[in-house]
Every structure is written in C-alpha cells, then in structure tokens.
Amino acid sequence: MSRLIVVSNRVAVPEAGKTAAGGLAVAVNAALKERSGIWFGWSGKISEEPSERPAISNRNGVKYAVIDLKEDDYQEYYNGFANRVLWPILHYRVDLAEFHRSDLSGYIRVNKIFADHVSKILEPDDIIWVHDYHMMPLARYLRERGHKNRIGFFLHIPMPPPELIQALPRHGEIIGALAHYDLLGFQTESDKENFGRYLESRGGQATADRRAYDIGGRRVKVGAFPVAIETESFARRARHAMRTNFMKDFRSSLGGKKMVLGVDRLDYSKGIPNRLEAFESLLRTTPEWHEKVTFVQITPKSRTAVPEYAEMDRYISTKAGQINGEFGDVSWTPLRYVNKTYSRSALAGLYRVADVAMVTPLRDGMNLVAKEFVAAQDPNDPGVLLLSQFAGAAAEMGGGALMVNPHEIEGVALALRRALEMPLKERQDRYQRMMAVLTDNDIDHWAQTFLDALIEPSQPALDSLLSRPGSMRSSTARMADFHGLQRPLEM
Ligand SMILES: O=P(O)(O)OC[C@H]1O[C@H](O[C@H]2O[C@H](CO)[C@@H](O)[C@H](O)[C@H]2O)[C@H](O)[C@@H](O)[C@@H]1O
Ligand SMILES: O=c1ccn([C@@H]2O[C@H](COP(=O)(O)OP(=O)(O)O)[C@@H](O)[C@H]2O)c(=O)[nH]1
C-alpha cells in the first residue's frame, strides 16, 4: 500500500498521557493509523540554525517529522504573510490585510524549505495530503523538484469570491498555484464555487459536472469535504466528564442558573464582541433574566504577536469588565471570561452542562466547537446551538441550530432569549436533526472521502490532449503564464 505523507504548518505530536487537541490532529492521526505514513511540519519552535534533518518521533504507530523555523521565517511566513495577509483576506477582511513584499518572500521561502524536506523523503507512489493556507504553493515547488505524485490540498478556512481574492497582491502566484494539486478540498460548496469562479476568471475551464477545472495544461479536481469530529467518542467523553471533580465543582458554582457557553480562540473572525454585545442587550432588555443566567466565555489567546489580535484582546477584556460592572451584583457575576486553554475532556463536560452554545463567527471555515457542542449533549435534555449563518458549520447544522446574523445584535439577543426559553420537545427535535448529520459524516468518513477522491484516477486536461506536439508549449510555460510570472519575484 502506498504511504500517506501529510504536510501542515502545525504538527500535533501527541504528548504522553494527553489526547490530541483539535480536529486536524484527530483527523490526521486517524488517517495515518489506517495507512503507513509520515506527518511533516513545523515543530512550533524557533531556532537560530535549524537542523538540516527533521526531528523524527514515533507515537502509536504514526511517524512525525518536524523542523524548527528561524526567527525571520516565523515573522515573515507565519505572523506576516499567513496570518496578516492570507488569514484576513480569506476571512473577507481585506481591510485588515497588511501586505509586505518581505513577508511574501518569507512565505515562499518557507514553502520551498518544506518542499526540499518533503522531496527528500518522497517515494514515487506516496500520496501527499497538504493542509491549509500556510502551504498553498507547496505542490508547485514539489512539481518543480520533479515529483509526479498525487497531491491533495484541504483548505480549513473560507475561500471568498474572486473579487476579494484579487485584492491579494500577486494572487496568481499563491492562490493560482493551487492548480498544481490533483485535488482541492474545501469546507463548503460555496467555498468550492468561489474558487471555481476564480479559476474561470483566470481562463480555467470547468468540466460539465464542475468537479474539475482544466487550467495551464493540468486538470485539478475540486470538492466540498466538510471537516468533521470523532462524534461517538466525543459523546462518550462528555458523559464520562460529568463524573469528574472539575465538573462537580463547576456545576455547583452555577448554583442552578442557566449557562450560556462560548469557546473560541481569541480571533477577530470569531465574532466575540458581537456575542458579548448581544448578551448585554439581553440583560438590558430582559431584567427577568438577571441573576438567572451565567455566560461562560472560554477564549485561549492566539497569534499574540499579530497587532490585530492584541487590539481584540484589549477590547474584549474591557467589554467583559463593563458588562459585569453594570449588571453584576455581589452575589452574581453575569459573565465569566477566561483566557485559559482547557483539555478536550473538560470542554466536553462544559458543553454538556451548557443550556446554550453561542457560535457567532463573522466568518469561519467550519467551527468544530459547534459540532463538538452538539455531540456532547444529553439526548434527554439537550442544549440549543445558536449558530452564525457565516460559519462553515451552518451548511450542515442549519437544520437544527437557531441561525443568526451576528451583525444584528438585537436579533442575536432575541435568539438567545428564545434558546434559553425553548421547550424540551423542540430542543430534542433540533438535537436529533444535527446529531444525524454528525453521525453520518464523522472524522473517519471525512478523511476517507477526501483520500478516495484523491486516489481516484483523474482524466487528463482536455487541452493537453488536443494540442498538437509540434505546436504545444510546455505545460511549465503555460503554468508560468497562468501564475503571471512575467514579473520575477524579488527575493
Ligand atoms: O495554528 P494557529 O495559528 O494557532 O491556529 C489554529 C488553527 O486555526 C485554524 O483552524 C481552522 O480549521 C478548523 C478545522 O478544520 C476549522 O473548523 C476552523 O474554522 C478554521 O479556522 C487554522 O485553519 C489551522 O490551520 C490552525 O492550526
Ligand atoms: O480551551 C480550548 C479551546 C478550544 N479547543 C479546541 O480547539 C478547536 C477549535 O476548533 P474550531 O474549528 O472551532 O476553531 P479554530 O480555532 O480551529 O479556528 C476545537 O476542537 C476545540 O475543542 C481546546 O481543545 N481547548
């Protein structure tokens, strides 16, 4: 059987006695356990002279290969281009993008470093699965190093319409380079369609079923593969969590009040300010809920070196203090705002006792918290998911969640009140609808569906069949036109 080589910015090497954190870690580990393979990426560490060879470790039958980055690489590639340019633009926040040529150079440099390392370990029948916006041009650099392997890419974050992608300077070299993959996976149909329209704007031709595009002499397949969770084991984890002292103490601290929960990295895409303002609006307009509800907002800090994140931190801390100052009492703190990271078991227990989860991103690739919350519920007394229409999860959970537009604070406040007062029968019906989706598409299904589509042989691009040998320009030349490489990169 061919090996699976997974490449991503972060590699979640499991620590002894700890469970893998986050959906990507669980999914990749599950996929790798089924096949022999390697997970390659950044160690998360900075060093002055990174070793020429990746550090290798083996855990539970999975091989991990990680490299350190230099300080400049970390600043330009990760903090700079990935998180100050690609992240905001792909989350529809062109206004927050801060483009510098040096950051783009750093991004390309790190992608080439990754390509050099992966190139050394590749065997001809290996299958490569690349994850996320940090690694968009990787396939191009692997192709330049002569590799013809099947290479798939999954984008965990949104793909906006072409008009927004075009705001990215040199977008052809980064987003356009995705055409070097054999399969591109997106979280939703709408992300997939947006990318298709972008390819068309650059001369790509869709096949009749719009499941592939011919461009630059290559055929690239596209599909929506909504990322999933380990539904059954997460539900079990939530049941077990209720027996822990942590959960017993937490429940007694609630003193019988209803509980509303938010769990998000501190990120402007997550809509935390809007959510707090909606809670504030509920308290202002509905005094009967005073002293009867506690809002718990768990917000681990994230990407703290990026200025926009530090600003968010200040705004949210101030807002939380103001809500508690205005509405709280010596016997009641309306909002508990914490910046700690909790284990998945602790989170599972918190989800299970929550009466409402507020998942209100302004834009989100998927939002696994929405799915984990549903999986953790007690079927006999489930909580309500209040979900933004702009989360990728809305495409699957929309049938059971209370849908909101996070930009309309009063609407969110009304939905919160409705969720807090929802009768049991309606809560159960909604829970069952969402749980059916999560059972059908669990994490194993997600990984398997993507890999099946990647392995399935694709048809060659039509123009590569039609071109006469004498007149045909090399596919490298056609790809160079496509990337717009007439202007050489200054690096
Ligand atoms: O690695 P960081 O910079 O600390 O950020 C954490 C991860 O954030 C993003 O998560 C996304 O993937 C989720 C799973 O598919 C999805 O549910 C969510 O909507 C996305 O925002 C990022 O894409 C990851 O690469 C980061 O590791
Ligand atoms: O204190 C925390 C907060 C979050 N998470 C996990 O982090 C992931 C967040 O994924 P999501 O898709 O919601 O957002 P992202 O942070 O990837 O943008 C989920 O699996 C959470 O269970 C965690 O383990 N501990």
Automatic annotation (TrEMBL):
Any single biological process term in GO: trehalose biosynthetic process
Ranges in coiled-coil conformation: none
Tell me the SUPFAM superfamilies matching this sequence: UDP-Glycosyltransferase/glycogen phosphorylase
EC number(s) for this protein?
A: 2.4.1.15
State the Gene Ontology terms under molecular function. Answer: alpha,alpha-trehalose-phosphate synthase (UDP-forming) activity
Q: Which reaction does it catalyse?
A: D-glucose 6-phosphate + UDP-alpha-D-glucose = alpha,alpha-trehalose 6-phosphate + UDP + H(+)
**Would the keyword Cytoplasm be found if you checked this record's keyword annotation?**
no
Key word Transferase present: yes
Q: In which pathway does it act?
A: Glycan biosynthesis; trehalose biosynthesis
What class does this enzyme belong to in the EC scheme? transferase
Q: Which InterPro entries does this chain map to?
A: Glyco_trans_20, Trehalose_OtsA
Keyword entries, A-Z: Glycosyltransferase, Transferase
| UniProt function note | Probably involved in the osmoprotection via the biosynthesis of trehalose. Catalyzes the transfer of glucose from UDP-alpha-D-glucose (UDP-Glc) to D-glucose 6-phosphate (Glc-6-P) to form trehalose-6-phosphate. Acts with retention of the anomeric configuration of the UDP-sugar donor.
Relate the assembly described in the record.
Homotetramer.
Q: Which family does it belong to?
A: Belongs to the glycosyltransferase 20 family.
Entry protein name: Trehalose-6-phosphate synthase
Write down the species: Azorhizobium oxalatiphilum
